[in-house]
Structures are given as C-alpha cells and as structure tokens.
Amino acid sequence: MPNPHLASQSRILKICIFATGCAGIVAEFVLSTLASYLLGNPILQWTILMSLMLFAMGVGCRISKYILNNLLDKFIFLEFSLSILCGVSVALCYWTSTFTKSTGLFIYAFSILIGLLIGAEIPLVTRMNGSYEELRVNISSVMEKDYYGALVGGILFAFFALPYFGLTYTPIALGIINFLVASILFWRFKHLLHYKKTIKISFWSITSFFLIFIFVVKPIILFSEQKKYKDRIIFEQQTTYQKIVITQWKDKYWLFINGNEQFSTFDEEKYHEPLIHPAMSLSEQSKNILVLGGGEGLAVREILKYKDVEKVTVVDLDPVMTDLAKYNPIITKINQNSMVDPKVNILNKDAFTFIEDSEEFYDVIFVDLPDPNSVALSRLYSREFYSLCRRRLNTYGIIVTQASSPVHSPNAFVCIIKTMESADFTVLPYHNNIPTLGEWGWCLGMKKGVVSNKVLKEKVMEIELPPPPTKFLNRDAIISMAHFGKGILERKDKLKVNTVLDPILVKYYKKGAWDVY
After folding, report:
1. Neighbour count for residue 97 (Cβ, 10 Å)
2. Which of 122, 184, 287, 321 has its CA 20 to 30 A from that of 514?
3. pTM over the 0.85 mark
4. Active-site residue 357, yes or no?
5. CB contact at 8 A, 388 and 421
6. Which of these is catalytic: 368, 371, 493, 515?
C-alpha cells in the first residue's frame, strides 16, 4: 500500500520543479529581452543568450553529479543563489551599462551563471525523488513538471510579466519564486536538513534583501536609463513589443523606441510633411488612406489636413503606443488629437498580416515603420510586402515608405528602391535633412504602366504647396528633395532585392555609417 507521507513529499518536490521550470524559462526570456534592448539586433541576442544558457544548463547537469550528499540542503542553497542572481541581474546590467561599453559581457555572464544553476536543478530533484518513485516514473514525472512549468512561464512572461512588471520587477518576481521554493523545502523538510542554522540565516537575510531591493530597484533602473539619454526622461514604459521613452529639453520633446529616436518636436515637420504631402497632393483621390505604423499620430495629423479624406486606417502593432497617441497630453498636443478623430480607425495588428488579409482598396498607403534593423522588420520592406500593398491600391493609388538614410546607409536606401521596383512599382526616391536624425529618405511609388519614372518626377515637382498649411514644406523644398548628387542612385545594379527568404536589407542597413552622425 502506498505511503501517504512519502507521496506528499514527492508531490512537494514536483511542485517545486514546476515552479523552477516556470522561473527558469522566464529568466532566459528576461536576459534575452534585456540584451536586445541594450545591445540591439534582437534575433542575434536571443540566439546567443538562449544558446549560452542551454549550454550552461548542460554543464550544470554535469557538475551536479559531483554533489554526493546532503542533496536537499544543497538544493535549497542553489535556489537561494538563483533567487539572488535572477533578482539583481537586470538592475546590475542596467547599472553597469552606464559606466562601460562591455554590457554584453555582464549579460552573458549572468546567463551562464543562471544556466549552470538551472541545469543542476533537475538532476538533484530527480535523485531526491528517487526515494519515492521507481526510475522510469521518477524521471518522466520530474521532467514533465519542469516542461509544464516552462510553458506556463512563457505564457506569463508574454502576456503578464513583461507588459505589467516590465524589466524592472519581472526579475524580482523570478527571484521570489526561487526563494519561495527554497523556503517551502526548508520549513517543510526542516527535520531532514544538516545545515539548519546556515539555511535559516540565509532565509532571513534574503528576505530582508528582497524587502529592501523592491524599493531601490526602480531608482537604480531610472538612474541607468537616464544616463542613456541626453535630456530628462518624463515617460518610460516597457511594453510587450518595445521600450518607449519620452524625453524633454526646454519646451521640446523626443520620442524613442528601443533607444532609437522616432521624432523630435524640434524638427519633426521635416520628416512628417515630406512623408505625407507629396503623395496626398499628387493623388487623384484621397478618400481612403492606410497608415502602416505611425502609431504616435503625427502622420495622421498631416493626412487630416485634406478635407476630402473620409477614412484613415492606422495599423500599429503596439496598443500602448496608440493609447499614448490618444490620451497622453504631451503626445495629443503634438498630434493635435488626430488619433481620436472620428475618421480614424486604429487597429493593433502586425502590418504584414493586415495587408495580407485586407480586402479593401486604398487611395494612398503610407508605410511609417521603424528602420529595417532586424529580420522581423526587414520583411516589411520586402518584395512580398510591396506586392501585397500593390494589390490593395486603387489603379492610380500611391504608396510611400520611409526608407532610412541615403547618406548614412545608402545601400539600404537604394535596396528599398530596387525592391519596390521589383514589385512592379514606378519609384521616385526623395530625401530631406532632419537635424536631429540626419539626412533621411522616402520612396514614392505608383503602379508600373500607370506612369513612367520621368512623368512621375515631373508631376511631383509641379506640386504647389500650400495649401494645406505646412510649417516647412513648399514647392521649392519638394523640387530640391527629388534630386540627388553623384554616388547614391548609381549603385542600384550592384545591390540585391530584399525578400522574406533573403533579408539582405538587414545586412545593408547594419553596414551603414551610423556612427558618423
């Protein structure tokens, strides 16, 4: 007959391994997200961090075989160590990033240390649980609970921890999970322990540490965050998709996403007016407009200056960004409440998926998305994407995309031109100097067969502005923007077309001379 006492002890161990499995996977996600934010290149950082941690887990498994006795005591110490490492990892990496450019080494070191300890967990629990279950049941049940915990941890991280706790408090929550596991085992199996006094001192010390650290971690993060920006941070939030920061200098504001400037009120009209007005002025009809990206509402502000506009659909992935555009008093003042206009319909969806599923036809499509600095973003500058956009344009419809810098990354800029042309667009590239961003470029396209390159350029240069009212743009500015000097457009034949399966644009973009600016 089964021993209820032994069954209860086995059940507690499995609950603990479920909890540590949950915490372990989230620790991997936290460090990978942190590396993506601080070091850039999300796919590379996630690949390196996950691989490093899995390797370290393997080493931890190997090391665990040398732990020969007092397994429960050592498992509790392991969990206490994990609780501290997980709890302080992000804050410490943030803090060191203000003093050194070697932040990646600290993040990778934490991933290795945490991976070593996580790797030792399952072998130790399996050996302890061996007293309660036969081998085949023991191994399968322990591994099963760990994998179930990983699933729950992944769901919690994506839908709860990152959106609501951010990178500030999620690591502390992880540390507390490991601490609770150790504490439950300590108090439940106190009679089996050999180092009761040492574990008890550790318990109260770590309890005190977390009670203090919960209150000091936010100032540490804010101090470190502020060091990354020239001006005073007045808003910051980690969303499911990105880190949003707003800074202020005198009466001017800057919006940053993942550390990259999106606009500054010092000169944002030099970006948004060229993005919008040439296409809107050229379009024979401007009733139904699509904006992919542009969640802050500044492009929409310019679109609504045209009285014949009946509907503007804004597709932006991040609901936090569009909510800021609707309700934050700083942003609403800048976008003139454009995002709450009854003509505007906001959809929080992936732009590629939306255009792939859309059945509407648009007069003008504006692609106001972040630079193609990752594989995920590069697909929004791919031949496949532009082909989908072409299908959704009316016969005389126009598409405009921001196209990075023709000066700092000319290969990326020209690659976008060539990619649009490969999707059967006649393309007119143009550019403008934006003091806070540098020289910037756009590509305006119409369907091939509707207009030639020569005629398209002539039509754009004949545009009369204002009306509508603009702060910067006029006919002379448009004429100057449509002309390039030597050495930029001539490189087209040497470059490849960007596709979903061959995201060459990322390579061109990253090899740009961004440090010059």
Report:
1. 22
2. 321
3. no
4. no
5. no
6. 368
